[in-house]
Design a protein that fits this description.
CATH class of chain B: Alpha Beta
Structural class of chain A: alpha/beta
Order of helices and strands of chain B: HEHEEHEHEEEEEHEEHEEEHEH
Number of strands of chain B: 15
Strand content of chain A: 15-25%
Oligomer: heterodimer
Radius of gyration of chain A: 19 Å
Number of helices of chain B: 8
CATH topology of chain A: Glutaconate Coenzyme A-transferase
Helix content of chain B: 10-25%
CATH architecture of chain A: 3-Layer(aba) Sandwich
CATH superfamily of chain B: Glutaconate Coenzyme A-transferase
Largest sheet of chain B: 10 strands, mixed
Number of helices of chain A: 10
Mean pLDDT of chain A: 98
Order of helices and strands of chain A: HEHEHEEEHEHEEEEEHEHEHHH
Distance between the termini of chain B: 27 Å
Largest interface: A-B, 64 and 52 residues
Helix content of chain A: 25-40%
Number of domains of chain A: 1
CATH class of chain A: Alpha Beta
Strand order of the largest sheet of chain B: 4-3-2-1-5-10-12-13-14-15
Chain lengths: 292, 258
């Protein structure tokens, strides 16, 4: 399935979408940009940090509500589109449901386990609690209400066509987001034979029964990094920070890197890829699943 | 003898000295990443670093980090896992020291990284908590780093993202069920402020080389108490500077204008 088809089919207007679940690496920028090109509206974005992806989707007018711990640009600071949306309702009003990294994880685990909430000591004494019905202080604990995504988008190292995938490296809230969601869209660096995945089931994050689409999209995480594949494109984050400072500059960035680019292959063709590519292998010892 | 250094390099060195040998440090983003590396390679060889995206390390990465999620931070890590697993260690009281970045801090160490002005219609929307609130509530003690300006060090923050010592009354944290001990120090571009062990109000403990006490007070938004035995902040040693410049070779964090 192409990314355009996957977004067309599984990310409708108004959908609750978990993305950027690993905080800084493996952010599904290609999928986010396709959502922008298809002019999705009224989305509810769910995630911990997601580097600058949420800022871009907000600036493009796709988002009605954000449920997150942090929205900005990790190496550069403020999210300028996020600022304009909250401060001036530009390009549209935005409802913000603040979380911490721990509480968004618990909200997703609660949904994954079909529990109404999980009680925790985190957020005690924080104003994040005020005015949020889904974060209730009861008997000295905070009840973090379940947050259920309709769809979760993950960028992974390798997958087969049947929706089995290997991920490695830090995972953020990817597992709970995928288990909590009704369906998971995978974008992958490598499309491999099923035997490759089945050789190491401990590296599988989420069962194939959750996966609704597998898209072979090399470089789909850029400018965010992916262990074994891509370094972080620091210059891209810096350029985005500088341009997105004004609505007009953001518009120029959006045209150049999203709207005037038909797909991810065309995005990659605009970059000098060699300096971003991980070339020195650092392989793990194979795991032995022998049984006789 | 006296090597030149930037305010950021001094802050990294001061932050590194907050790390004790054997500490489990919840590192966060930016300058604290460097502070952990400096401490680990100088006075705290047994300090470990926990990163909220799901990493545990016992040494700094072998290459520059723009974020904690850059691939050099993953290679050679002790544990690659999810956010909730790192939070498990902290919720159990296992994190000795946390670092939190702040936009605004008040005299009782409460941090605001969410809204300047009323949340319904703020003048400035900041990125939010990230893991800040979790570290503030659950780590044994924590330190924040920020630029020393009147608009940042304020009498009371209008919004508490990450609670410090609350209203400053004794036992505020315990009464509200917060597990850890709260803020231990504020490291700024001008000075180091500390808190009494039982909580309460920040006081000046050291000023950076070349900075006057009056200058620190003028840049602080409340009547800053000066500790009886205030000193000059120890400048970074050549060993500390060498470590900082190894970890940040192009000065991305420590030599560009912030």
């Amino acid at each position: 399935m192409s990314l355009a088809q996957a977004v067309e089919r599984f990310v409708p207007d108004g959908a609750a979408v978990a993305m950027g679940c690993c905080l800084e690496p493996a952010i599904p920028f290609a999928a986010g940009h396709e959502v922008i090109r298809q002019r999705r509206r009224d989305l509810k974005l769910i995630g911990p940090i997601s580097d600058s992806l949420f800022d871009q989707l907000i600036g493009a007018g796709c988002v009605a509500e954000v449920v997150a711990a942090w929205v900005g640009n990790v190496s550069e600071g403020l999210g300028h589109c996020y600022r304009r949306a909250v401060e001036s309702r530009d390009p549209r009003p935005l409802t913000v449901r603040d979380h911490s990294n721990f509480s968004i994880s618990l909200a997703l685990w609660a949904a994954a386990w079909n529990s109404p909430y999980i009680p925790t000591p985190t957020l005690l004494g924080s104003d994040i609690l005020s005015g949020q019905a889904a974060l209730e202080l009861v008997d000295g604990s905070v009840r973090v209400g379940a947050v259920r995504p309709d769809v979760c988008v993950l960028h992974v190292q390798r997958a087969d066509a049947g929706g089995r995938a290997h991920t490695w490296g830090p995972l953020g809230v990817a597992q709970e987001a995928a288990l909590a969601a009704d369906g998971v869209i995978l974008t992958c660096e490598q499309l491999v034979e099923p035997e490759v995945i089945l050789s190491d089931p401990s590296r599988v994050l989420v069962p194939e029964t959750k996966v609704v689409a597998v898209v072979h999209e090399p470089g789909g995480c850029l400018p965010s990094p992916l262990p074994g594949y891509w370094k972080r494109d620091h210059a891209a984050f810096r350029e985005y920070a500088a341009l997105s400072r004004t609505a007009e500059g953001f518009g120029r960035w959006l045209r150049e890197w999203v709207l005037d680019v038909p797909d991810r292959a065309a995005y990659l063709a605009k970059l000098e890829l060699d300096p971003l590519r991980v070339t020195r292998r650092l392989l793990a010892e194979p795991a032995d699943y022998g049984y006789e | 003898m006296s090597e030149r250094f930037t305010a950021q390099e001094l802050m990294v060195a001061a932050a590194a000295r907050e790390i004790r040998d054997g500490d489990l440090v919840f590192v966060g983003m930016r300058l604290p990443v460097l502070a952990y590396g400096v401490a680990r390679n100088t006075h705290a060889p047994n300090a470990r670093a926990l990163f909220e995206l799901g990493l545990l390390r016992d040494r700094p990465a072998n290459a520059f980090l723009g974020t904690m999620g850059d691939p050099p931070n993953v290679a050679g890590s002790l544990w690659a896992t999810g956010t909730s697993s790192t939070m498990a260690l902290m919720a159990q009281g296992g994190v000795d020291l946390g670092f939190i970045g702040g936009a605004e801090v008040d005299r009782f160490g409460n941090l605001n990284t969410s809204y300047i002005g009323p949340p319904a219609r703020p003048q400035l929307k900041l990125p939010g908590s990230g893991g800040g609130a979790d570290i503030a509530i659950l780590s044994q003690r924590w330190v924040t780093l920020m630029s020393h300006e009147r608009r940042r060090l304020v009498e009371r923050v209008s919004y508490v993202t990450s609670p410090g010592h609350g209203d400053g009354s004794p036992g505020w944290r315990r009464r509200h069920g917060l597990l850890g001990g709260g803020p231990a120090a504020i490291v700024t571009t001008l000075a180091v402020l500390r808190f009494p062990p039982q909580g309460g109000e920040a006081y000046l403990t050291s000023v950076h080389p070349g900075v006057e006490v009056a200058q620190v007070q003028a840049a602080t938004g409340w009547r800053l108490q000066v500790g009886e035995s205030w000193t000059m902040t120890e400048p970074p040693s050549s060993e500390e500077l060498a470590q900082i410049r190894r970890l940040d070779p192009d000065g991305f964090w420590t030599r560009r204008s912030q």
